[in-house]
Design brief:
Blueprint lengths: L2 H8 L57 H5 L10 E2 L5 E7 L14 H9 L2 E7 L5 E8 L5 E10 L4 E10 L2 E10 L4 E10 L4 E10 L4 E10 L2 E10 L5 E10 L4 E10 L5 E10 L5 E10 L7 E10 L5 E10 L6 E10 L2 H8 L5 H17 L5 H22 L1
Helix pairs in contact: 4-5, 5-6
Amino acid sequence: MSQAVAENQAAPGGTDQHGLRAHSDGDWANRVPVQTRSERPKSTEVDDFPAVTGREAVWKFSPVAKLDALLHGELDGSRTPVETSPADGVTAEWIPRDDARIGRAGIPEERGAAAAWSAFGEAHLVTLAAEEPVTVAVTRDGLGDSPRAAHTVIEAKPHARGLVILENRGSAQLSENVEIVLGDGAKLTVVSVQQWDDGARHLASHYATVGRDASLTHITVSLGGEVVRVNPSIHLDHEGGNGEALGAYFADAGQHLEHQVYLDHQAPHTRSRVTYKGALQGEGARTVWIGDVLIRQTATGTDSYEQNRNLVLSEGTRADSIPNLEIETGDIAGAGHASATGRFDDEHLFYLRSRGIPEEEARRLVVRGFLLEVIAHIGHAETEARLQEAVEAELASSSASAR
């Protein structure tokens, strides 16, 4: 290319390739929308992302006005009150933000996560090293009404086994990043439970990297909070890695629950399964599920499937469900996706009522069974029973408010 042509193309309003001319509003070449999931810009600096307007692809379903303090305000990055239950082979410590163990699983792709990353002072690191299975509960309760930032790192050493339950309760205005790092041969289940108070607002981005022949089960259970948005990204970047992303949620009147799930197959012979199931009841109940699966050219032999199911229990609700699948290689074992949103099945109700079960009890049984598929994967009887009771309490309170 001659210097004159190069200068003409670089100049505002100059002629581009094939005679295309830049618009007068400038930066025409950089206004092309991101075409694939992997092309999204990434940065740990909040100033690298423009202010959120709600028109962006990653924010267009979210109530951004309610999240303004977390997106554009000043966040308190000091240590959050947290309790970690003791277990053999498990350590918990606070590490500075410049520690080399931070940033291994992924970095932000949007302003909310970048704001939290820019603000936190120390990260809470939980390390599992035992090859015998252990259970660890990491509990936060009542963080207050001031906007806060947090950062958590969960690491499973090679061949470690464990279950980590992240319990979120009480009041909160929280934006956070959670990193999950699995060594080769590790097997880890991470459960994030959102049972916040009614006015809580929570933005969470979870990033995971899965080692060779390692297996991660990531489970999200969202029940409480005014606005809750939990976005897990699982990167299968080592051969033989397995990732399962499961979710259960129940939105009642005026509640917004959102989950954007990303499975990134980078290495050969990796496997993933995504199953999210939600129920909605009450005026203004809103759920959003977006599932992205990317099978890169290097991920030969991939086996992947994602699905989302929503059960609508009353009028005045809205469930958005968007599965996306990108395949860059033809050499895969299988890939697919499915999505369905439907009303309560009257035939199920008729069957149960014909056997003497009152209507409200029948509805509880159907919803409980619908969500149990996800909750039963937790593998901790006490937590599973408590969450089943919480689902039934949601049903009872929503039914009472509707009368």
